[in-house]
């Protein structure tokens, strides 16, 4: 995979293309299409968050086994399975006639990244050991471009046509990702099972147990995980319900896609710079500053009825997440022991996926009972409590040290 060109393009460039196209298709279907389509199908308002979050719930369950399966059967087979789901998932929505069917389709679509993402990152790390950080960064950038453009294109296509056309466009992009995936060469890197064969599954499960134990036993890791999990609750609530709120104040569908795109651009562009700043200034100031930006933004959004202001708040929220996430991830790396780094980071990722999934589900019930203003205020207050617990706990840790 590392050395030979594949039809003029290197395998790594092809892999980046698969990542971009796959994410573009996947995120296009996530927002604004899914929440608006769920409402169109008559889904109860309190369950729309669950429908949006279903793909993340699948990821929580499947990501660890998919990594172990790639050790057993080779990276390419598991990656190909994920690419097949990305190509077929959007077309499945065309056959949906009710919101329960949409929910089932969302659980299925979640297999796309759950199967594809872990072996892809592992493959890049294995093939390029001397430039691992650079290659992973480049691959992540290609996926992030799809994350940003997906909601924008979804909103534009929906505004110009209808749900069916939007899902067809998403599916066609998914097929292009699958076709690109087929150009990844079958070689010793992509097809040969990892050394250890079936013992690897047991190793993966033991690593998960080790990671859980480390997080449970270290108060500092628990505190950092708490902040990140609460942050992703807020992100999840915005992904699911900001399109519905914007529609309720008569913002155009194509503009709704721009709201998600603005948040994504701010978060992705700011992360590398702010991650470096956390190396110089320390993790805590950026975690606190970013959390405060997100808290203030969540409170302000439902008081905003103007697209330009709403876009500005989305960008500020994205900047806040760009401050918090690199700093919390780096802080986990600072805290864990070298031997348990991978397993603890895996569990940390699962915890933020849990927050990402729980946010829309909880918010859905809140918004039906209390409305947007009170519901996002409560979400913000939860983040305030988590931030205060983090600050008090880290202060006690510093005093004890």
Number of strands: 0
Order of helices and strands: HHHHHHHHHHHHHH
What share of residues is helical? Answer: over 70%
Mean pLDDT: 84
The CATH topology label of the largest domain is: Growth Hormone, Chain: A
Structural class: mainly alpha
Taking pLDDT < 50 over at least 5 consecutive residues as the criterion, the unreliable ranges are: 3-7
> How many distinct domains?
2
| Fourth-level CATH superfamily of the largest domain | MFS general substrate transporter like domains
**What is the distance, rounded to the nearest whole angstrom, between the alpha carbons of the first and last residues?**
47 Å
What would you call the shape?
globular
Strand content: under 5%
Protein described:
The chain folds into two domains: 1-197, MFS general substrate transporter like domains (Growth Hormone, Chain: A, Up-down Bundle); 206-401, MFS general substrate transporter like domains (Growth Hormone, Chain: A), CATH 1.20.1250.20. It is globular, with a radius of gyration of 21 Å. It is mainly α and 401 residues long. It starts with 10 loop residues before the first helix and ends with a helix. It contains 14 helices and no strands. The chain has helices at residues 11-40, 45-73, 75-94, 99-109, 111-127, 132-160, 163-181, 188-191, 199-217, 219-248, 253-281, 283-300, 307-335, 341-400.
């Amino acid at each position: 995979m590392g050395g030979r060109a594949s039809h003029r393009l290197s395998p790594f460039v092809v892999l980046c293309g698969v990542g971009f196209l796959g994410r573009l298709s996947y995120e296009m279907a996530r927002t604004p299409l899914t929440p608006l389509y769920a409402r169109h199908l008559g889904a109860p308002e309190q369950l729309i968050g669950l429908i949006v979050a279903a793909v993340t719930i699948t990821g929580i369950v499947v990501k660890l086994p998919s990594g172990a399966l790639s050790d057993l059967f080779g990276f390419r087979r598991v990656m190909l399975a994920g690419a097949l789901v990305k190509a077929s998932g959007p077309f499945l929505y065309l056959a949906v006639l009710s919101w329960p069917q949409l929910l089932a389709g969302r659980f299925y679509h979640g297999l796309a990244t759950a199967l594809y993402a872990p072996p892809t990152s592992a493959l890049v790390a294995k093939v390029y050991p001397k430039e691992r950080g650079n290659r992973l960064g480049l691959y992540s950038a290609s996926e992030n471009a799809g994350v940003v453009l997906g909601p924008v294109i979804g909103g534009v296509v929906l505004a110009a046509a209808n749900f069916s056309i939007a899902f067809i466009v998403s599916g066609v992009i998914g097929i292009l990702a699958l076709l690109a995936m087929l150009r990844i060469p079958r070689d010793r890197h992509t097809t040969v099972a990892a050394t250890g064969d079936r013992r690897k599954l047991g190793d993966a499960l033991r690593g998960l147990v080790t990671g859980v134990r480390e997080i449970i036993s270290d108060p500092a890791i628990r505190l950092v995980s708490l902040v990140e999990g609460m942050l992703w609750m807020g992100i999840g609530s915005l992904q699911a319900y900001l399109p519905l709120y914007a529609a309720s104040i008569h913002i155009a569908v194509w503009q709704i896609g721009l709201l998600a795109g603005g948040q994504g651009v701010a978060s992705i562009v700011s992360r590398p710079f702010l991650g470096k700043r956390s190396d110089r200034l320390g993790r805590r100031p950026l975690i606190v500053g970013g959390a405060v930006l997100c808290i203030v933004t969540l409170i302000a959004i439902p008081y905003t009825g103007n697209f330009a202001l709403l876009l500005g708040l989305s960008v500020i929220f994205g900047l806040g997440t760009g401050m918090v996430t690199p700093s919390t991830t780096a802080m986990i790396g600072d805290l864990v022991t070298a031997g348990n780094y991978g397993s603890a980071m895996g569990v940390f990722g699962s915890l933020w996926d849990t927050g990402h999934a729980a946010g829309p589900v909880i918010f859905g019930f809140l918004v039906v009972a209390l409305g947007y203003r009170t519901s996002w205020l409560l979400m913000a207050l939860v983040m305030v409590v988590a931030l205060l617990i983090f600050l008090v706990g880290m202060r006690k840790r510093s005093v004890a040290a």
